[in-house]
Amino acid sequence: MHSWKNVILTLTSFQNSLDYVYPISMLKAEFFPYTLHFSFTAITSRAQMHTKDTYFIKVYDTDSPNKIGVGEVALFKGLSIDDTPDFEPLLQQCCKEINEIDISEINSSAIRFGFETAFSDLNSGGFLRPFTKTDEWAIPINGLVWMGDKSIMLSRVSQKLDEGYRCLKLKIGGINFEDEIDILKTIRTKFSDDVLEIRLDANGGFSPDNAMQRINQLSRFNIHSLEQPVKPGQISAMADICKKSPIPIALDEELIGITPDIQKAHILSEVKPHYIILKPSLCGGFAEADKWITCAEHHNIGWWATSALESNIGLNAIARWLLSKSFTMPQGLGTGQLYTNNIPSNLYIKDCHLANDPLKTWNLSQIF
Predict the structure, then answer these.
(1) Which residue segments constitute the domains of the chain, with CATH numbers given?
(2) Residue 236: HSE in the Cβ half-sphere, 13 Å Cα cutoff
(3) Alpha-carbon Rg for the chain in angstroms
(4) Read out DSSP for 93-137?
(5) Is the pTM of this model over 0.85?
(6) Positive or negative CA dihedral for 116, 203, 241, 332?
(7) What are phi and psi of 231, to 5 degrees?
(8) What does the alpha-carbon distance between residue 10 and residue 106 come to, in Å, rounded to a whole number?
């Protein structure tokens, strides 16, 4: 087993703290369940959501209990591959064995993500450390339009356009397909593709039998990309779609879980998608996401990252991880405003960017 100290040294780049290693005598870890409440009914082709359960962990040195590293164990029920009855006992065990744990051996994407975040946070001084102006950053993001009936979706599109977004992601596949076509037709009559980039996310809502017919209809509207047209695990069908589709195809749910490196290479070489979408809390944590990026770039496949409906704790971690990468496309990080009881933070959206105010304080009192 590797010590946690070795783990810390491999995780600090996205916190810009490679030159700092926190002196530890004995670690303790605790977890805290938390329910996030949507400010609206969030609809995908899979389900309707009103709440999302998550867990927060804090890691601290018993000699300095006021300096804590905070992470989010962002289990996505119904989607995470580690959504099993033994999930919480595994999380409890990892907290209990914090001084012996090897993150890379934890068989849970969500728990890996949470401990990577907490260790990196602790190593950089913890959430309660004073910030300076040099900590300020901003990341370009797409506007996210959730499903609803036709009038609701058009209203949401109009709102995002009024806010200045010129890259929109629309979730489709959950309402009448002809209504979705009408929505895209309405958008394109007002905004051409050189003014507005449209990304579509089917969340596996098409079938192998109807996917190409629908994709051909969608292609009339100069779509930037279509995420996961069919459900994951249908490698042959997805490869055929990627080969024939006039719209660039992106893999999303196909990446969920902790995938051996050889399997990553097999999936990408067989399917040959144009893009992959990285959700670190679902695809094995940050270390595994890095491997997906390396593999994708080897096959000349593009990528961007999105949140998986984490709270501001997880969103902040993904943003800081992205800051260590080279990217030009808008990222999918505009989810912090989804909840009525999100964690008060220094994150905000300005001019279609996720940004932070380094002089504003996080408030963790509703967690711990």
Answers:
(1) 4-123 (3.30.390.10), 134-356 (3.20.20.120)
(2) 1
(3) 20
(4) HHHHTTTT--GGG-S-HHHHHHHHHHHHHHHTT-TTSPP-GGG--
(5) yes
(6) negative
(7) -60, 150
(8) 16
Report how far residue 32's alpha carbon sits from residue 14's, in angstroms, rounded to the nearest whole number: 25
Number of C-beta neighbours around residue 22 at 10 A: 18
Task: Choose among 170, 140, 142: nearest CA to 155.
Answer: 170
Tokens for 301?
């496949």
Digit-by-digit pLDDT tens for the chain (368 residues) are 333 333 333 333 444 433 334 445 689 999 999 999 999 888 776 678 899 999 999 999 988 888 899 999 999 988 888 999 999 999 999 999 999 989 999 999 999 999 999 999 998 887 756 666 678 899 999 999 988 888 988 999 999 999 999 999 999 987 889 999 999 999 999 889 999 999 999 999 999 999 999 999 999 999 999 999 999 999 999 999 999 999 999 999 999 999 999 999 999 999 999 999 999 999 999 999 999 999 999 999 999 999 999 999 999 999 999 999 999 899 999 988 899 999 999 999 999 999 999 888 899 999 98
Contact 64, 115 (CB under 8 A): no
Residues near 56 by beta carbon (within 8 Å), at least 6 away in sequence: 31, 32, 34, 70, 71, 72, 73, 114, 311, 313, 367, 368
CA distances for 291 relative to 264, 285, 295, angstroms:
9, 10, 6
Cβ neighbors of 324 (< 8 A, separation 6 or more) are 13, 14, 16
Which residues participate in catalysis according to the annotation? 171, 279
Distance of alpha carbon 180 from alpha carbon 194, whole angstroms: 21
- DSSP string of 312-330? HHHHHHHHHHHTTS---SP
State the amino acid at position 36 in one-letter form.
L
